[in-house]
Design a protein that fits this description.
Layout: E1 7-11, H1 16-26, E2 35-40, H2 43-54, E3 72-76, H3 82-89, E4 94-97, H4 104-109, H5 111-132, E5 138-144, H6 153-171, E6 176-182, E7 184-185, H7 192-201, E8 206-208, E9 214-218, H8 220-233, E10 239-242, E11 246-248, H9 249-257, E12 264-266, E13 278-280, E14 288-291, E15 294-297, E16 318-319, H10 327-336
Parallel strand pairs: 1-2, 1-4, 2-3, 4-5, 5-6, 6-10, 7-9, 8-12
Antiparallel strand pairs: 9-11, 10-15, 13-16, 14-15
Helix pairs in contact: 1-8, 3-5, 5-6, 7-9, 9-10
Length: 354
């Protein structure tokens, strides 16, 4: 059991993936941890998460708690801050770095902010472990398909995160640094499904960037499965990529609209967007092997390379345009994964414990 007896830090733990990961860790399915630390900048989201876990029936916002004595501990902190990272990393066995600026247009308009969170944050984690000799066993970086052949700031900064963590295996040979890379997570913050929900509830129109756009899709629980699989199997410097199906965004919109008389309007590609995403590039495919339902990208650095496979698992890049679901299959996929957040009439996202 990979998490049994471990102290685990989840940076960005109040985000969509962070909350799902914390829920699954606390379930004990991969072993019983001794401590789970949620680190993020948002005290309101931390408080809501704390209340949900401590007592779901509390009628007031005020809860008396013993934060540092609980299995689930909350820390206000920022991966951009080296002192915050040092404080959180002390006595931790496993770090899952889910802290990120991940909305493509936001990162295009504020690239410096994206660099600070998505690049300097990971570097702070590496630096804290190296300079303080923290006995961290594993650091796992959460990446994205946009980091592969990146054309936008979000993808570029996530690609740098991957390289920072891979290179850290050479700087700190006592810690295993690994990554996971996957596509669009259904119903996560900033994803297209909550946007379509809001637009449908408002009576439309539902806005599409392009009728030809495709995206890899997976649920939050499937994203957590990738993290757990990598924690259990990945060797130093490896990046785990799930084998996924993809769908046309226009089919997602059509499936969600159903029989409603709501207009779909094509508004054009947003700044930094691709028509199709790539999870493994044509350069990377030559050093990819297959483990079950995952592609594993081997590290490029010779110090970290073990024997490459006799035959690469991929002959070409792994693109979302290669194996696209038809409309009926897209409907079935969405029906299997019910939304994990709801939108009120006021437009605010309701908190639902994952």
């Amino acid at each position: 059991m990979i998490l049994d007896g471990k102290s685990i830090l989840v940076t960005g733990g109040t985000g969509s993936l962070g909350r799902a990961l914390v829920r699954r860790i606390l379930s004990g399915e991969r072993g019983k941890p001794t401590k789970v630390i949620v680190m993020s900048r948002d005290e309101a989201k931390q408080h809501a998460m704390r209340v949900a876990y401590l007592n779901r029936r509390v009628p007031t916002d005020e809860v008396i708690y013993h934060n540092f004595e609980e299995l689930l501990e909350f820390r206000i902190g920022d991966v951009r801050s080296y002192p915050d990272v040092c404080s959180a990393l002390k006595d931790v066995d496993i770090v899952a770095n889910a802290a990120a600026l991940k909305q493509v247009p936001t990162c295009e308009y504020f690239p410096g902010q994206a660099v600070a969170t998505n690049c300097l944050g990971p570097e702070n984690i590496v630096r804290a472990i190296r300079e303080n000799d923290y006995p961290v066993e594993t650091v796992i970086g959460i990446s994205t398909d946009k980091a592969c052949k990146p054309v936008n700031v979000m993808g570029m900064t996530k690609a740098i995160q991957e390289r920072i963590f891979v290179a850290a295996n050479i700087l700190i040979p006592t810690t295993r640094f690994i990554c996971v890379r996957y596509g669009n997570v259904l119903s996560s913050r900033g994803s297209v499904i909550p946007l379509f929900q809001q637009q449908i509830r408002a009576g439309g129109p539902v806005t599409l960037t392009s009728p030809d756009m495709t995206r890899f899709l997976l649920s939050l629980d499937e994203a957590v499965d990738v993290v757990f699989q990598a924690l259990g199997e990945a060797r130093r410097g490896e990046t785990y990529v799930p084998v996924l199906r993809s769908a046309r965004v226009i089919d997602i919109a059509r499936a969600m609209i159903g029989e409603r008389r709501i207009e779909m309007r094509v508004v054009g590609v947003r700044p930094g967007e691709k028509l199709n995403e790539v999870l493994v590039s044509e350069e990377e495919c030559h050093h990819v092997l297959r483990r079950g339902n995952y592609f594993v990208i081997l590290p490029l650095m010779p110090e970290l390379r073990h024997d490459p496979p006799a035959t690469a698992a991929l002959a070409k890049e792994y693109s979302s345009k290669d194996d696209v679901l038809d409309f009926e299959s897209t409907v079935e996929l969405l029906e299997r994964h019910q939304p994990l957040s709801a939108v009120t009439e006021s437009g605010e996202t309701e908190w639902i414990l994952l």
